[in-house]
Amino acid sequence: MDTVITTDKLTKRFGSFIAANELSFEVGKGEIFGFLGANGAGKTTAMRMLCGLLAPSSGKATIAGFDVYTQTEKIKRNIGYMSQKFSLYDDLTVSENIRFYAGIYGMSRPTIREKTRVLLDELGLQNEAKTLVRELPLGWKQKLAFSVSIVHDPEIVFLDEPTGGVDPVTRRQFWDLIYAAADKGVTIFVTTHYMDEAEYCNRVSIMVDGVIAALDSPAGLKRQYGSGSMEDVFYELARKAKRTGD
Amino acid sequence: MITLDKITKTYNKGQVEAVKEVSLEVKPGELFGLIGPDGAGKTTIFRILTTLLLADKGTATVNGFDVVKDYVKIRNSVGYMPGRFSLYQDLTIEENLHFFATVFGTTIEANYDLIKDIYQQIEPFKDRRAGKLSGGMKQKLALCCALIHKPAVLFLDEPTTGVDVVSRKEFWEMLGRLKNEGITILVSTPYMDEATRCDRIALIQKGSILSVDEPEGIIRNFPVELFAVHAANTHRLLKEVRGYEGTDSCFAFGDALHVTFKGAVVADGQGKSAAGGQGEASGLLPYLRAKGLEDVRMEKITPGIEDCFINLLKN
User: Fold this and answer.
1) What's the pLDDT at B84?
2) How far apart are CA A231 and CA A199, in angstroms?
3) Which of A160, A207, B249, B300 has most Cβ atoms within 10 angstroms of its Cβ?
4) How far, in Å, CA of A29 to CA of A157, rounded?
């Protein structure tokens, strides 16, 4: 399996506080990788390093083949990112948002036109192309935000709690999009507080107090901890945390 | 203790119907849950009941007081923890608590027993400013401030959103203890699994109530039989089960699929016949095996609240 994320003892210190401590793991191409942890475990710090937004204190990491110390601009061009606080512009229309983000990634006008058509088609939003994003229901916004985050065909997309707040059916439709992207070879790196979503991942890591306390397939983790569900596995690990907070 | 009678609230000059003719009743001492996604109207209901927002139509009372005429009395007798952290970021833990006690004409000491269990967890940091606290600690402080005047009714708007599994579990244990103190609690959450912690729940979507009952009652009223289907490759399984023509609904639930079948007799809420509820279930496994999925298993299961919510959305 080709690896697209490799980290080796990746560490971030803030003064005497070690937010992320010697993280070592690999993520393969097309894999759906769940990145879990309690509030304050160090997930956000780790994600920021992997996205080239925060320089590590020590250790190594390559993202899509690029170094997190020296090639952060190349990393940013080759990844997508979506957070719960959508990065869509409320006062632009659906197609303007697509054009804007595709433009930022330097795509040509004919490519953007074609991409917009395909994307609106896939999302069933043809009739909403000229609707302001503000007027879309939350679930549609989320799907659009995801599609826009992979508009430039990145190798990896980082999803930071992408499904918060939507109804159970919309949440599952969102996962259909994730699966479809993974089938095309996009690597998915996702955080979530919904433990049933952890089960949808190929592999899951659980961070506790800055370290990766467990990493395996959901089935493997459940076997290892003798638990019936990922919720029990998570609870077993995270309740030992000494740190509190975000 | 809380009543809503055909409450309607619109925004943007009537263009957005946030709450549509909602009627509800919460009994004294009840732990009542409003369960629904963002945009369902939960926060609007909270704001109307806490007298911060006027309804367009309908009436509502809290603790026997009308939300319009007696708003001052309501404000004195309820505690409200809004969804967004609303304490003073540049006051310390202790200063915030002292401030809220003073506003309500009481002291921290007078009602210390009520908050003791919760406050002791954050007391070591009492000189830290609220803005510098972690999410879990902010949540505990906000709860203390909402309780400091010993309210008869406690309103908690999405107290566990974005909070990890461990803190969520602790929070619900705290609510259980407050309920034992006799406080009536109305709490909202988007997490369906928290519904079973409540005495009764209302499932709400797009401003309308889908169902109100005890969690067990809502589960009992699930109209057909529900099956869990397992295979090693859940993603592939999902595609194939959706392709089976006897499938009525099929959704991923963790490592299994939850499936209902066509031809199942829909119960009228009075219980269902074991024979009629299955529909075309028996044909699924042969169908999947013919498609090359060898390791499939299927069993009948009891639905959860999330299954019920999905089913109600369908109608």
Assistant:
1) 85
2) 10
3) A207
4) 11
Q: What is the pLDDT of residue B274?
A: 47
**Interface contact A245, partner B, CB < 8 A:** yes
Contact list, B308 vs chain A (CB under 8 Å): none
Count the alpha carbons within 13 Å of A159 in the hemisphere toward its beta carbon: 31
Q: What is the mean pLDDT of each run of 10 residues along chain A (246 residues)?
A: 93 95 96 91 93 96 96 95 84 96 94 94 92 90 93 95 85 91 95 89 95 95 93 90 66
Burial class of B27 by CB neighbour count within 10 A (0 to 12, 13 to 18, 19+): exposed
Closest CA to A168 of B207, B308, B209: B308
Query: Could you report the per-residue pLDDT of B63-74, keeping only the tens digit for each?
Result: 999 999 999 999
CA B298 – CA A61 distance, rounded (Å): 43
The ipTM assigned to this model is 0.81
pLDDT higher than 80, residue B28: yes
Whether residue A22 contacts residue A9, with contact meaning beta carbons closer than 8 Å, is answered with yes
Of B135, B169, B309, the CB nearest to A39: B135
Side-by-side strand order, sheet with B65-66: B16-26, B2-11, B57-62, B65-66
Record the pTM.
Answer: 0.85
What the block records as the tokens of A40 is: 């304050």
DSSP 8-state class, residue A217: -
Helices (H), chain B: 42-49, 71-77, 93-103, 112-122, 135-147, 165-180, 215-220, 234-243, 284-290, 305-314
pLDDT at residue B275 is higher than 80: no
Residues in contact with B36: Cβ distance below 8 Å, sequence separation at least 6, in sequence order: A167, B42, B188, B190, B203, B204, B205
Chain B nearest-CA residue for A32: B235
